Every structure is written in structure tokens, then in C-alpha cells.
């Protein structure tokens, strides 16, 4: 078992903390927007979908093994502006700690364009490499998701791959995937 991370994190303008049940209204508002969920692995959420997502986010406080994740609510002046995820995807061997983490982010459109996602993601990257023994962080996204690709680049990730038609969309079509990566030594050098 890995210890729970030291939270909350505070940045210049934001607080990053675990998700609580009362975040449901704010998270539900942007996750019900089909424009927000267009490139996410879930459709715009109805009440049932939101209840399931909230249950998973609230429980995601102390990931330890591959498949588990840390979910963070991001607030600015006590208003929830978005949420972040760090999911462990791999490790060298059965008994080794996780070595690879995948980043994810969803921010409310009314708080876009102010650098909040960038500021929060940088804090999560720092936490990932300081608190966990990770070797590599990565992000996978639809290459048409320009805002997310720009965010990856702003936090120092490298575009490493573009795989073709490897993601099954909900409507049965296939989408490409862009893979971004950041190695521990690159983070340390920066
Ligand atoms: C991906 C997502 C989080 C990016 O949001 P964003 O608002 O573009 O990102 P930021 O909050 O970091 O804001 C950056 C923008 O604000 C501008 N900005 C203003 N002040 C800034 C500051 N102090 N610091 C950094 N950027 C600032 C930047 O120039 C940038 O604009 P640009 O892209 O036009 O150059 C958002 O589009 C989103 O939630 N999308 C839906 C969910 C989704 O697709 N998630 C990813 C799935 S892979």
C-alpha cells in the first residue's frame, strides 16, 4: 500500500483537494455538457451517470496499484472549476510499485482560458513525481482535442505517438489517439 498523498495542494490561485459528495452539483453541471464530454470516455452525464462518477471520484483518494487513481477537485476562491485524475497504468513486476501514471482533466467551460487547468496540472505533475515512485507520466487524447493537446505541451509533455483508429467511439466509429509523455528525468531537469 502506498500512503495517501499530502493534500490539499495550494498553488498561486488554486486549491487541489480530494473530491467530496457535495461537489456533485458543480461536477454534474459541466459533465452534463456534451461539448465538455465530446472527447471523454463517457457521454454527457445524466443523474444516474453522475451518481456513479461521483462514487468513483470520492473513493479515489489513495491509489496504490495499477488501475487505481487519484481524483482531485480544483477550486478557485472556493468555487470548483474542474477536476483532475492520476491513474496508475503499469509497473515493472508484480511486487514493484507503479511506474507509469496517466493524467486526465476536465474543466468547466466558464472557467476556461485563464490557465487554471495548466496551473492545476503542473501541481499534479509535481505531486506525481514527488509523492510516487513514478518513472513516466502520460496522457492519451483524441488528436482533434486541441485544447487538451496544448495543455499537455504547456506542462512540458512530448507528443510521442499518433496511433490510427485504435479507439472505438460510442457511435461505432473509430478515432485516432495522440500519446503524450513526460519522464521523471525531464521533469527533474525542468
Ligand atoms: C482540456 C481543457 C482542460 C483545457 O482547458 P483550457 O481552458 O484550454 O486550459 P487552461 O485553463 O490551462 O487555459 C489555457 C488558456 O488560457 C490562456 N491563459 C490565460 N491566462 C493564463 C495563465 N495565467 N497561464 C496559462 N494560460 C493562460 C492560455 O493562453 C490558454 O489559451 P490558448 O490555448 O488559447 O493559448 C478543457 O478544454 C476541457 O476541460 N475540455 C473538456 C474535457 C476534455 O476534453 N478533457 C481532456 C480529455 S483527454
From TrEMBL:
It holds the Pfam family Acetyltransf_3. Coiled coil: none annotated. Residues 37-186 form the N-acetyltransferase domain. This is GNAT family protein. InterPro entries: Acyl_CoA_acyltransferase, GNAT_dom, N-acetyltransferase.
Amino acid at each position: 500500500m502506498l500512503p495517501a498523498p499530502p493534500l490539499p495542494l495550494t498553488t498561486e490561485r488554486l486549491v487541489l483537494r480530494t473530491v467530496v459528495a457535495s461537489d456533485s452539483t458543480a461536477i454534474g453541471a459541466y459533465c452534463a455538457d456534451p461539448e465538455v464530454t465530446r472527447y471523454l470516455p463517457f457521454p454527457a452525464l445524466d443523474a444516474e451517470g453522475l451518481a456513479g462518477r461521483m462514487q468513483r471520484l470520492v473513493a479515489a483518494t489513495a491509489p496504490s496499484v495499477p488501475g487505481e487513481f487519484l481524483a482531485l477537485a480544483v477550486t478557485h476562491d472556493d468555487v470548483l472549476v474542474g477536476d483532475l485524475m492520476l491513474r496508475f497504468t503499469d509497473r515493472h513486476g508484480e511486487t514493484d510499485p507503479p511506474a507509469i501514471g496517466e493524467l486526465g482533466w476536465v474543466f468547466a467551460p466558464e472557467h476556461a482560458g485563464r490557465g487554471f487547468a495548466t496551473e492545476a496540472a503542473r501541481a499534479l505533475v509535481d505531486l506525481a513525481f514527488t509523492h510516487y515512485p513514478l518513472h513516466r507520466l502520460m496522457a492519451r487524447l483524441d488528436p482533434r482535442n486541441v485544447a487538451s493537446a496544448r495543455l499537455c505541451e504547456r506542462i512540458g509533455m512530448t507528443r510521442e505517438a499518433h496511433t490510427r483508429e485504435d479507439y472505438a467511439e460510442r457511435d461505432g466509429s473509430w478515432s485516432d489517439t495522440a500519446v503524450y509523455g513526460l519522464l521523471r528525468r525531464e521533469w527533474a531537469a525542468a
